[in-house]
Design brief:
The chain is 41% helix and 19% strand. By secondary structure, the protein is α/β, with parallel strands linked by helices. A three-stranded parallel sheet has the order 1-2-3, covered by helices on one side. The longest helix is centred in the middle third of the chain and has 10 residues, at 27-36.
């Protein structure tokens, strides 16, 4: 959670990120990551059960340029 926030705060030019097999990653961390990384083009999130379908849909709706793979 803190790690995703730190990435969002300190890596604005991040273009690709993968989150895989994590029960620790939650909606708030993902939103801090994508809102802090305006250059993000690819986000891969697999086997992360704490990330809600609502957040995934919100990201798709509000960031249509982002290739979100879940």
């Amino acid at each position: 959670r803190v790690a995703l926030q730190a990435l969002g705060e300190h890596c604005p030019e991040l273009k690709t990120f993968t989150i895989a097999v994590s029960r620790e990653v939650q909606d708030r961390g993902v939103m801090r990551l994508v809102s802090g990384c305006p250059m993000l083009q690819n986000l891969y999130m697999t086997n992360c059960p704490q990330i809600s379908q609502e957040i995934k849909q919100l990201i798709r709706d509000q960031m249509p340029w982002l290739d979100l793979v879940t």
